[in-house]
Automatic annotation (TrEMBL):
Species, as recorded: Capillimicrobium parvum
Pfam families per the UniProt record, alphabetical: F420H2_quin_red
EC number assigned by the record: 1.-.-.-
Gene Ontology cellular-component terms listed: plasma membrane
Identification of the protein by name: Deazaflavin-dependent nitroreductase
Length: 149
C-alpha cells in the first residue's frame, strides 16, 4: 500500500487551494456546489486554531445520525491527526454550516460502541477511509458533533 504524501508536499498545497475553492463555492450556492463529494455530504466546520487563535473553516465529509454529525479525524491516511481535530479538542464548542443552515455544536470523540456502529456506514459513503486506517498503526478517532444546548 503506498504511503500518503508528506505534510510539506505539493499535494497538500494543492489540497489547501482546493479547500478554499470548495468553501467559496459552498457558501455562494448554499451547498448546491461543493455540498457533496461522491456519495458523501459535506459540511463546513468552523474551528479556532489551538495555538494561533485564528478562525478557520474546513470542508469535511460527514455522516448524519439523527441530530448528530459524525466526522473521521484522519488527514488522508497521514499518521498525524488533522489540525481541526486538535482545535476541537482544545475548544469543543463550535459551529458548522450545512446546506443553507448554521448550527452550534459540541464535539466529542465517539465511544468504542459508536465507532463500531459508525465505521461501516462511513466506509460505505467514502471507501478511502478504510485505506486510511490501513496506513497507520493508530486508531483513527471519529468525532461526534452534537447539537449544543
Amino acid at each position: 500500500m503506498p504511503k500518503p504524501p508528506p505534510p510539506d508536499s505539493p499535494f497538500w498545497k494543492v489540497f489547501g487551494v482546493m479547500t478554499k475553492l470548495n468553501t467559496a463555492a459552498f457558501r455562494a450556492t448554499r451547498g448546491k456546489v461543493g455540498g457533496r463529494f461522491g456519495k458523501a455530504d459535506i459540511l463546513l466546520l468552523h474551528h479556532v486554531g489551538a495555538k494561533s487563535g485564528k478562525s478557520r473553516v474546513a470542508p469535511l465529509i460527514y455522516l448524519p445520525d439523527g441530530d448528530d454529525l459524525v466526522l473521521v479525524a484522519s488527514k488522508g491516511g497521514s499518521d498525524r491527526h488533522p489540525g481541526w481535530f486538535h482545535n476541537l479538542r482544545a475548544n469543543p464548542d463550535t459551529e458548522v454550516e450545512l446546506r443553507g443552515e448554521r448550527r452550534r455544536v459540541h464535539a466529542r470523540v465517539a465511544t468504542d460502541e459508536e465507532r463500531e456502529r459508525y465505521w461501516p456506514r462511513l466506509v460505505a459513503i467514502y471507501k478511502p477511509y478504510d485505506d486510511y486506517q490501513g496506513y497507520t498503526q493508530r486508531r483513527i478517532p471519529l468525532v461526534v458533533l452534537e447539537p449544543r444546548v
